[in-house]
Amino acid sequence: KARRRNIRLTVSYDGTAYNGFQRQNPPQVAVQNVLEEKLSAVCGDSVELAASGRTDSGVHAIGQVVNFFTDGTIPLDRLPRAVNSILPPDIVVLEAAEADRDFSARHSAKSKIYIYRILQGYIPDPFERNYSWNIHKELDTDSMEKCLRMIEGTHDFSAFRAAGGPPVSPVRTIYEASLEKEGRIVELKFFANDILYHMVRNLVSTLANVGMGRTSVQ
User: Fold this and answer.
1) Residue in 14, 56, 125, 156 annotated catalytic
2) Which of 22, 93, 134, 140 has its CA 20 to 30 A from that of 217?
3) pLDDT band at 163, cuts 50/70/90?
């Protein structure tokens, strides 16, 4: 924070080749490793990012917010083009803006949207292999939608958190949980104030079991 500028970036990335967003030690490579390296080259000083959220290995992001402090003088209108020219094609800076000194992408985030895609049927789709979970059955989406109504609102989601996450309150608010179908794709969307470690993954696994008839709707 001793540096003159606090810059907010909006980024998108295909996480297929990365071990999540959060910085990793070699030989593991995360999105943060790559972004910090390229931003440091463009800004002329070391860059350490704060991010609005962390993603797991292979997870993608659309419009994730990060910020960093720098003494670099590159104009904001040139920053995205400059860093995109040296980033790999699976990571893109969409926009850059000056932020207030007290802005932190991690602590200032108000809400997040998580999307999980399921491909139904035995025949895989090569164009969906990195972007959906292939389940070899047709799902009962009506029952799944009933469950989605149950999880909306403010609840203790302890049953859906995984071990290894930070010691935080298990109470979260899901403002909206929805299901959309397009062809063989079932898309589940969770709009929440925040999410516990692996919470969405565990929610989707439970919903899939309901859709396959392995778990009943109570």
Assistant:
1) 56
2) 134
3) confident
